[in-house]
Amino acid sequence: xxxxxxxxxLGLLLFAALPGTANYRLNSYGFGSxxxxxxxxxxxxxxxxxxxxxxxxxxxxxxxxxxYIGTRQANVPKLTSLDNNGGVYxxxxxxxxxxxxxxxxxxxxxxxxxxxxxxxxxxxxxxxxIGTTLTTADFQTYAVWGGAxxxxxxxxxxxxxYWVKVSATQGNYTQSAYGPSSSATTASPSITFNLTTTSQAxxxxxxxxxxxxxxxxxxxxxxxxxxxxxxxxxxxxLYILSKNSGLNSASTASSIASASADLGSVxxxxxxxxxxxxxxxxxxxxxxxxxxxASNIVGIVDNSNRGLYTSAGPITSGVASLFLKAKAASTxxxxxxxSDILTVVAAGNF
Length: 350
Description:
Immunoglobulin-like, 0% helix
């Protein structure tokens, strides 16, 4: 015989409270059962089982990711500056990285775009050119990217706005999000050149050497003054050429030929001599041989483009002046129409 017992069931209710204080509260917590990593020669994956859900908090400038992996990421860096060097750079931009407290062995990568990453996203390669792919070799330390002095990203189009942003990493599983983008516009190539004389501000210009006494060196009363400004990356050159390759007299069909010479030592000759060269910044502007001589040493002016002045880099407010000098031999036929036509050419080295 079996006996049946009837009784009441015992109900058990469990309650849990979220930890918190008057100022803070932890909205969720849980326990995971560990995880693992998987990798190949090119990729690595870190996994975790258990609680993986969460909520991302974000504003226009900041973002907090859920789960513990986010806490291992490098600090999100940004750019201290991005500029075209005051309107000088037309094919590059200068940038300086703000590490945002990342350690010295952290590495950084840069994205670049012409439309603020709407459809154009490219990368600054480790040689500072632009590429369509990003590799581990393109992550470089703050020091390699120029440190506080920064570096120049090169090979850009002129007159175009660019946006740049930077990401950081330090070891496996640590690459940060890209920081806020900075923008700057490359300048347009430019060169400005002007010519005046000591007493003439507007063309046509004329420079008189004065009456030539046989055996004596005559010097122009006025100087030919040249002005040069350019952002050409390799500077510029000024050239001089002559129509007649000397001082010619149409009425007598006679001439005083031009040559590079010391007029104090030869019987006759004609040429140009630099008296000064300077600039407010950049350059420097330098007179080339044989026009950089002293005393009565002159450089030839003929129908070839002769290098007169040069600047090795961009220059602002370059100023140069030159004299014309001539000497007539006693055998030169006297006339009052000895003349020449000179042309000065400026060429930027873009």
